[in-house]
Each structure stands twice: as structure tokens, then as C-alpha cells.
Amino acid sequence: MLELDTGLTLADVATVTSGGREVRLADAARERVRANRAYVERLVSEGHVVYGVTTGFGRFATTTISRDRVEELQRNLLRSHAIGVGAPLAPDLVRCMLLLRAQSLAIGASGVRPELIDALLALLNAGVVPVVPGKGSVGASGDLAPLAHLTLPLIGEGEALYRGELVSGAGALERAGLEPIALQAKEGLALINGTQYMTAHLVSALARAELLMRVADIAAAMTVEGLMGSHKPFHPAVTRLRPHPGARLVSENMRLLLAGSEIVESHADCGRVQDAYSLRAVPQVHGATRDALAHVRQVVEVELLSVTDNPLILADEDEVVSAGNFHGQPLALCADYAAIAVAELANISERRVEQLVNPSLSGLPAFLTPHGGLNSGLMVAQYTAAALVSENKVLAHPASVDSIPTSANQEDHVSMGAHAARKLLEVVDNAATVVAIELMAAAQALDLRAPLRPGVGAAAAHARVRELVAPLEGDRYLASDVAALRSAVLDGSVSRAAAAAAGLA
User: 45-49, 174-178, 437-441 — which is least confidently predicted?
Assistant: First the structure.
């Protein structure tokens, strides 16, 4: 059982969103939230004008709402803002959003009742997955439309999945044995004014990207061996003289993966002076991606400790502050940065695939097939990699440099963080497929170098690939092979196999 208090870790999020752990509000958080709520109730009872509590929203911030209609105001807010469009989000992203929204409220600066947080967690624990359309947020006044869809089932409206079946929000509550909640002052606004759509996408993309970056090193090591490349670019002195952390780590990984190679010994006296950049500059390129993702992780970890709605209820200071914590700019910039960084992993991987399949560059049979002409081998595998790399170039165009005014120009600068985060997931998925194609091609090249054995880590990865995909003797249906390897990239099994053999960190 996970207890929500002042913050979450990425590991916590992973265990909950996968469905393996229930969540409750910690006692200390409950008391903190209750005290914060009491301050809101005092403001309402004393007739204070407070944005989003006794006023309308956005351009309607100057419109005062009578005390007897405050609950109706909060309910109307969810209804009016639930106007997202597009394909529904995957259940794991929705579960992540529920957890993150509950955590932000649990910090105790949002003015909600503990019962509202309990209701969110009850959806999560009961397996109720609200239907959340993927499009509609501009990433500034919070992820308004997605969060409205996320929370409508709390009041018995909207739609949800329950045990895989699409039902009404009311029907989902009934099947799960839950009751709808009546929203009180500030609570509707607190539910939808936050960055949880963006953050959930970033959390998911970061987890996949971190797996991918490890496998990218492994695929590169297999390719270096398959192409009889030099190991000298991974000499410790290289990155000691330009000591970016990511490059130093990748260089060490390459040395470990390539240790004990028979292949490198076989061409010790060849006349080649230098390899192509896609082999020689692996530490510098892969390392830069690692450094970028490390920065993204730092920003996401801060977001998991943050209150991102408005206004902020500072009961201890007897103050209500309208500010901009809902603005997604930190996440938007990180999502764009991550998309560029991950796209580069795919970019250099595709170039290594070309090195492998091109006989003028590899010295191996064309397209890695022993019976060329009759068979096309891995010719079109490189086409697919090239297509995905080109698609990533479009997707990596930054969304965060754009803005469009909303709410009659009250919200005159927006982050576009939802766009950035959503397309980041596509970039990561495309890159994972490209690296899977490199694994397939590199494994075929290593087969053609037999009986010479590659380095210990590369050999272990090759063995894992061969557990999933047979050597290519003649043309066959390859889409399922790529899919199997892509799954192995993202489930960590390739990186675990190589790490166990080579002692990778």
C-alpha cells in the first residue's frame, strides 16, 4: 500500500500505474488537507471574493457567484470543460493522471476536502479508468479538458472503462460499489487546474526512453563487432579529455560490452584508419541523449512534488494567491528536448543499419542475405528505419515555441506542453522500432562473422535476439520479428541480458 503525503518517486508511479499497488492518503496529509480546507470554508462563510471559489473562471474572474450556487459552479466547470477530442488515452496514462492529481492535492495547498482525494484514489484502487480524449489541452491553464474528462466520473458523469467494458461514469461507480461525490467550493477548479496530462506523458515516455538508451549502446556494440569496427574510440582517455557525464558512461559501457572480443583480434592489422561517425562517435551522440534525459528526469521529479493548480490556498499565511503554477512551460521544454534527444538515437541507429546492409561499407553480403537477388534480405528493414527517422524529424519540431491565446486573451501565453508530451511518446516508440531493426541487422551480421565471437556483452545480447528471432536464411515475413524485438527493447530483457554478462551499471 502506497501512502500519499508530500511527494512521489518515479518508482512509486510505475508500481501504481501498472496496477500492482493500492494507494491511500497518509494520516499526516489528511490532517494537513483538512486544515487547509477549513480556511477555504471560512473565506466562503465570511463572504470573501476568491477567484474560482466565489467567482467564475478565466475571463469570468470578475463575475461573483452567490454562496448558494457555489456547488453548482464547480459541477458546471467539469461539464463545460470536458470537451476533449481524439482517441482515448491508454489506461496506464489515465491511471497515472489519477495518481498525480491526487498527489498534488494531498500536499495541502489546494483547498479541497480529504474526501475528494479519497474519491480519486477509490477510482484508482477499484480499477475505474475514466475515458480521456487525447486532444484539447494547450498546456497552460492546467490540462483543463483532459482533467475534466478524468474527473467527471467522480460526480457520476462522463464515461469510464470498468474491467475493460465501456460504461457511463455513473455505471462505473455503481459496478465498483462507489458513490458519486458532490463537489464543494474550489473543488472543481482544483481537479482540472494542473499539469497531470503533460506529466503523465512525460513519466511514461521517460521510462521507455531510459530503457531505450541502454539498448542503443548494446545495439551499437553489436554493430561495431558486425562491421569489424575499431574499439579505440572507446579508450578512456577520449572522454577523460571531454568529460561529459553521459559520454563517459557510454564509453565505459562500450568497453564492457566489447571486452573479450575475438572479432577485434582478427582484424588488428587491417589497413582501416577510421570508422564512420555512427560507430566512432557513439559515446558523444548517445551520451548527449543520456545527459538530456537526466535533465528531464530532474524536472519530472520536481513536478511530482508540486502543487500545480490555482489559486494557491496558503492557510498558514492567511492568504490566497493567484499565480501560474498550472503553466506547463517547464514540461513543454523538457518534452521537446527529450524528443530531439531520443530522435537522435534513432537517427544514428539507422545510419548504422545502412552500414550493415550496404556491401560497399560492410564487406558482408548485400542486405545481409546469403542468397541475394532471389532474396532481398534486410533491404526494406532499412527503408522502414529511414521512414521512422524521417517521421521523427517532423515530430521533433518543438511545440513549446508556439502559443495561442485563449479565454478572450486572459490566458495570452500558453505552453503547448500537451502537444510536446504527446508527440514525445510517438518519437520514443518510433526510435524503439529503429533500434530493434538495428538489433536484427547486427545479429545477422554477427552470424555471418561466425565462428569468431564478439565481446561478452554483445554476445549475450545476440543470444537474447536469437531467442526471439531466427537467423535469416531466406526471405520471410519480418514485421513480427521487428515487433518482438521492439517489445524486448522496451521490456528491458535485452539490456538485462547484456548487463548480466558484461557487468553494466
Answer: 45-49
User: What is the CATH T-level fold of the domain 201-305+343-502, as seen in this structure?
Assistant: Fumarase C; Chain A, domain 2 (1.20.200)
Closest CA to 228 of 280, 271, 279, 263: 263
Give the active site residue among 51, 162, 197, 337: 51
Domain 2-194, architecture per CATH: Orthogonal Bundle (1.10)
Q: How far is the CA of 500 from the CAs of 119, 252, 282, 497, 503, in angstroms?
A: 44, 15, 22, 5, 6
- CA 428 to CA 434: how far, in whole Å? 10
pLDDT band at residue 61 under the 50/70/90 scheme: low
Tell me: pLDDT of 410 over 80: no
Give the DSSP letter of residue 234.
G
DSSP β-ladder status, 2-4 and 23-25: parallel
What pLDDT sits at residue 57? 60
Contact predicate 347/216, CB 8 Å: no
The question of whether 277 is a catalytic residue gets the answer no
Q: Return the biggest CA–CA distance within the chain.
A: 88
Q: How confident is the model at residue 139 (pLDDT cuts 50, 70, 90)?
A: confident
Q: What is the pTM of this model?
A: 0.94
Mean pLDDT of 218-234: 97
Phi, psi (deg, nearest 5) at residue 159: -135, 155
Phi/psi for 182 (5° steps) reads -90, 120
3-state secondary structure of 466: helix
Contact criterion met (CB below 8 Å) for 140 and 134: no
Query: Domain coordinates of the chain in residue numbers?
Result: 2-194, 201-305+343-502
